[in-house]
Amino acid sequence: MAPLPEPPARTHISLPMVEDLRSSLETSELLTPEADAYRVKIRRWAESSEKQAGAILLASSPADISTTLLFAQSHGIDFAVCGGGHSTSGSSSSTGGIVIDLSAMRSVHVDPSMRTITAQGGCLWADVDAAAAEHGLATVGGTINHTGIGGLTLGGGYGWLSGQYGLVIDNLISIEMILANGRSIKASATENADLFWAVRGAGQSFGVATSFTYRAYEQSSPVFAGTLTFDPLGSPDKIPQVLAFANNSIRAGQGHAACMLGFAVGPPPNSAPVLVCSPFFNGPEDQARAFFKPLLDLEPITNSAAMIPYSNVNGMFNAVAQHGGRKSTKGGAFAAPMRVEFLQSLFEKFCHFVTEVPDARDSLLLMEFFSPNKVCEVDNRAMSFANRDHYNNILANPQWKDEANDGR
Predict the structure, then answer these.
(1) 338-368 pLDDT, tens per residue?
(2) To the nearest whole percent, how much of the chain has pLDDT over 70?
(3) How confident is the model at residue 407 (pLDDT cuts 50, 70, 90)?
């Protein structure tokens, strides 16, 4: 078998190239390092993912995105696309190349009669949640609402409503993209269906998404949600008790209830590792409190669970997922029921990690206990997303400040 050819060498964008591209744009702005807004626009959720771009396109139209893509290809210039900027791999940044920044394209249109939400590619989930709530609607979206809709959607997308309505891509009606050849194209189940199959799971590989249309659902009532914390160091029985509830909740919740478990370092003065549990119930408060009574009866050391608007739910974790600092994100999966011994071993390793690396005491380890039944109703061959099964997600999110710890 012949070896694969080497990828073509990429060059940095030069000042004459910048002027050439700038003169070809209709309405978008092209920033270079001396511009006041440049420093703001190269910032990312994780400082460890920031790179010094040669130029940043503040895109305001699909036409200018098309022009920039063709220009980058014709000159062999590296380029990256930035929506919310949460990629910890650095894929939304470029060293010396062009960043296509979609943050100026954040309009949302809701059609209450058709129950659809159309959002531009630079939108954050907070934009979508707020616009939908104005009409008593909601759709499946990210559990951190300052993330961009593009990355989550194109990769599949889990959320608090997945137990009822499946993945984000299961609720994607259509998408508009700029392809590598500069064409603007719409894909749906009835139009360019092969591309629509591909973008639902591997969409970042096929073009720049400029618009998404989602199916929406009635959500005029508030939901029960919040965060409970427990002290597993002072009360070792909390881990098996909380886990027993979480394991049972996947089946008993019937898609309307869910929870996340995880480990974090609590606030001063103790600043000790704690067990975090975030309950969610889409229904009346009396039913929610009855469902979570076994958990609430365990006497958490903090308890913020209450009835809140659904549009606020995806902001619950924002305080522990703020912009800045150095971060990484790694994913895993587990099949419920999770064993107590396994969760206990994770806690011990988490404690060891934050003790050995005090700089990483803002780190998180989270596990989703969502019903996978609705997700598994869709055949694995129906879309390019091929990871549907009866398992749940684990997120490891190390966070640190000292650049010297980047290689650990």
Answers:
(1) 999 999 999 999 999 999 999 999 999 999 9
(2) 98
(3) confident
* Residue tagged 């019903």 (tokens): 371
Cα separation, 385 vs 175, whole angstroms? 16
| 373, two tokens | 């039944």
Secondary structure string (H, E, C) spanning the chain:
CCCCCCCCCCECCCHHHHHHHHHHCCCCEEECCCCCCHHHHCCCCCHHHCCCCCEEEECCCHHHHHHHHHHHHHCCECEEEECCCCCCCCCCCCCCCEEEECCCCCCEEEECCCCEEEEECCCEHHHHHHHHHCCCEECCCCCCCCCEHHHHHHHCCCCCCHHHHCCCHHHEEEEEEECCCCCEEEEECCCCHHHHHHHHHHHHHCCEEEEEEEECEECCCCEEECCEEECCCCCCCHHHHHHHHHHHHHHHCCCCEEEEEEEEECCCCCCCEEEEEEEEECCCHHHHHHHCHHHHCCCCCEECCEEECHHHHCCCCHHHCCCCCEECCEEEEECCCCCHHHHHHHHHHHHHHHHHCHHHCCCEEEEEECCCHHHHCCCCCCCCCCCCCCCEEEEEECEECCHHHCCC
Q: What value does the mean pLDDT take over residues 30-42? A: 97
Q: What is the mean pLDDT of the chain?
A: 96
Q: In which residue are the tokens 């591209």 written?
A: 21
322 and 364 Cβ atoms separated by less than 8 Å: no
